[in-house]
Design brief:
The complex is a heterotrimer.
Chain A: E1 3-7, E2 20-25, E3 28-34, H1 43-46, H2 54-60, H3 67-82, H4 88-116, H5 120-141, E4 150-151, E5 154-155, H6 161-187, H7 189-195, H8 203-208, H9 214-217, H10 225-228, H11 233-236, H12 249-273, E6 288-297, E7 300-309, E8 314-320, H13 322-333, H14 342-348, H15 353-357
Helix pairs in contact in A: 2-3, 3-4, 4-5, 4-12, 4-14, 5-6, 6-12
Chain B: E1 8-13, H1 19-28, E2 40-41, E3 50-54, E4 57-58, H2 62-71, E5 77-81, H3 83-87, E6 97-99, E7 109-111, H4 118-138
Parallel strand pairs in B: 1-2, 1-3, 3-5, 5-7
Antiparallel strand pairs in B: 4-6
Chain C: E1 9-11, H1 14-26, E2 30-39, E3 42-51, E4 54-62, H2 78-89
Parallel strand pairs in C: 1-4
Antiparallel strand pairs in C: 2-3, 3-4
Classes of the chains: A alpha+beta, B alpha/beta, C alpha+beta.
The structure holds iron/sulfur cluster (SF4).
Iron/sulfur cluster (SF4) sits at the interface of chains B and A.
């Protein structure tokens, strides 16, 4: 006989209103049904009343954790409608802020994840290192979390000499610290006991289930939009996709740790190649046409669709966020998992509910 | 012993964009260290004194927030963190948003900002402490909140 | 007509749509998302598929009153987005794997079909 247990929306481990209806057979999950809507605001309608420049700020508040990359993706999508030529320097600054965003998001996730399996000192360790990233981000952009660096046509703030020194200093001091926490996550006996072999997804399954980001790459699929898609700047920066073959919670953790190193490398390379020049071009007129833009967020690939009709408001904005793509994979991963492990499995997709529901 | 020396807080995420949530959690971590005020983040409303709410209220979570509020024992203090929790913030005109938290439950202190800095949140918590102490002295009880009117879902 | 529209293959009937999508699946395409737009009383669907980082789009027009077929039988991950459009546009999909009946996001009290 099975029992249905509601999980969430207020749960001690997860700060977000994740809500699942779990069908339990004697401590083992046999079925899961996500229930959404606790954070649904209706932003895709809301843009009707805002012009396309103001929409940038709304997109940044789709999610506060990956907010910089939401803003960047949106502005790049709108720039496609204008066929605008964006100054090189602006693109490099976007990459730098985007990677800072990824660093803080992954460190945040690693901390929450450690908290999820009861390793509190590791949680505090990760969040302490994250503050270094936020300090630099605040110096560059003016806010700790909502960066608001990107605007249609370029970026709103330039990097000063002082910022660059700070960035480089942060990279140097962060790298050995990441090595420290990597040792714990990858080698620690207790951690491995909790993670190895938990909720395994095969390469094929992860591919077909339409997952994105570290959930996909943790199963051995080397797919990262940064490598190939519309934003070709990453190719010049020597980007390499991080993958892990395991396919379980351990593999997904390893991918995220590797991406921390990758982000640091990208920031360093971007600084060394940073061209001089303007940081924005003026954009005139109103957007027409439709465009799709994809970038890689900390949680995976985000797809923006924008449609303009020649007025100052966009006609339609559709955002497919990474968690939206990853939630169906929970339906496949959770059956067979013990109830006590459910929070960890839910955390490994790095759920961002406010992204999912907008 | 004074209650204000070790207030336990419950953090409720309503309709927020996560920006405020991660700042609330950042308050509890070593750099800002809210624990020096005796603050402890606790998962269950039954043991909490201060309710920290982030984000606005929408039609689906209005029940959740009401239930959590009613379960907190007296004296209790509600702290609304962020522009969203205070007034609805940038989302106040969205179709699914009812408004700030004070539309549903009584709020004692507000921390404005989008998103507020951890220092500001700590300030808010400290302000809430004296309110908590006063409530205890005056034996002020929170009223049981009942939903009325159109925000009650018919299947609730 | 709009300039710089995205490239998309026009699909005429729902039978053809399901056949094409099945073909794409056996070709190794991943379901990325589906975009719903209001157009001439009805709705325009743009299905977005992805393989080796290339996108392939299908465009399908849903006549007013027509009940579009769900593709969640082919790609399970389509169920969330189709449920979302049931909520937001008041559409009804036929053959959904998990049907939230228009209450994925919205409660009976929230505004009905806000985007329609
Ligand atoms: S106040 Fe700003 S940062 Fe906080 S939840 Fe609202 S939109 Fe997000």
């Amino acid at each position: 006989m099975t029992t249905v247990i509601p999980f969430g929306p207020q749960h001690p481990v997860l700060p977000e209103p994740v809500s699942l209806k779990l069908e339990i057979d004697n401590d083992v999950v046999v079925g899961a049904l996500p229930s959404l809507g606790y954070v649904h605001r209706g932003l895709e309608k809301f843009i009707d009343t805002k012009d396309y420049n103001q929409t940038t700020y709304i997109c940044e508040r789709i999610c506060g954790i990956c907010s910089a990359l939401h803003g960047i993706t949106y502005t790049k999508a709108v720039e496609k409608l204008f066929d605008a030529e964006i100054p090189e320097r602006a693109e490099y600054i976007r990459v730098i802020v985007g990677e800072l965003n990824r660093l803080h998001s992954h460190l945040l996730w690693l901390g929450l994840f450690a908290d999820g399996f009861g390793f509190e000192s590791l949680f505090y360790e990760c969040w302490k290192y994250r503050e270094e990233v936020l300090d630099v981000a605040e110096r560059i952009t003016g806010n700790r979390v909502i960066h608001s660096i990107s605007k249609v046509g370029g970026v709103s703030r330039d990097l000063t000499k002082e910022n660059i020194d700070m960035l480089l200093k942060m990279c140097d001091s962060l790298e050995p610290k990441i090595k420290d926490i990597e040792k714990v996550f990858v080698n620690n006996y207790t951690v491995k006991q909790r993670l190895v072999g938990l909720a395994t997804m095969s390469k094929q399954l992860a591919y077909e289930a339409g997952t994105a980001g570290p959930t996909l790459r943790g199963s051995g699929n080397a797919i990262d939009v940064r490598e190939t898609a519309d934003w070709d700047i990453y190719k010049d920066l020597g980007f390499k996709t991080a993958v892990a073959k395991e396919g379980d919670c351990y593999g997904r953790t390893k991918v995220r740790i590797d991406e921390l190193y990758e982000s640091i490398k990208l920031i360093r390379n971007a600084i060394s190649k940073l061209p001089n020049g303007d940081i924005a071009t003026p954009i005139k007129g109103f957007p027409t046409g439709e465009a799709i833009m994809r970038t890689e967020q900390p949680r995976g690939e985000v797809v923006y669709y924008v449609k303009g009709n020649g007025t100052k408001n966009l006609e339609r904005l559709k955002v497919r966020t990474p968690t939206f793509a990853n939630i169906p994979s929970l339906l496949l991963m959770l059956p067979g998992v013990r109830l006590a492990d459910v929070p960890i499995v839910v955390l490994t997709i790095d759920p961002c509910i406010s992204c999912t529901e907008r | 012993m004074s209650l204000a020396k070790s207030p336990w807080i419950i953090h409720v995420n309503c309709n927020s964009c996560n920006g405020c949530d991660i700042e609330v959690v950042a308050c509890l971590t070593p750099l800002y260290d809210a624990e020096r005020f005796g603050v402890l983040n606790i998962g269950t409303p039954k043991q909490a004194d201060i309710m920290v709410v982030t984000g606005s209220v929408n039609y689906k979570n209005v029940n959740v927030i009401k239930n959590i509020y009613n379960q907190i024992p007296d004296p209790k203090v509600v702290l609304a963190v962020g522009a969203c929790a205070s007034t609805g913030g940038i989302f106040h005109n969205c179709y699914n948003v009812i408004g700030g938290v004070d539309q549903v439950i009584p709020v004692d202190a507000y921390v404005p900002g989008c998103c507020p800095r951890p220092e500001a949140i700590l300030d808010g918590v400290v302000a809430a402490l004296s309110i908590l102490e006063n409530k205890k002295k005056g034996n002020i009880k929170g009223k049981e909140v009942k939903l009325k009117g159109k925000e009650v879902p018919s299947n609730a | 007509m709009l300039e710089n529209t995205i490239e998309a293959t026009e699909i005429k009937s729902s039978g053809e749509l399901l056949k094409t999508i099945e073909g794409l699946k056996s070709d190794g395409y991943r379901y990325s998302t589906m975009i719903c737009l209001k157009a001439n009383e009805g709705h325009d669907f743009i299905y977005v598929f992805e393989k080796d980082n290339k996108l392939k789009n299908l465009r399908y027009f849903v006549k007013p009153g027509e009940k579009p077929k769900s593709v969640s039988g082919i790609y399970l991950c389509a169920l969330l987005i189709e449920n979302e459009y049931q909520d937001l546009f008041g559409l009804t999909f036929e053959g959904l794997a998990i049907d939230y009946k228009g209450h994925l996001y919205l409660t009976p009290n929230s505004p009905k079909a806000p985007l329609a």
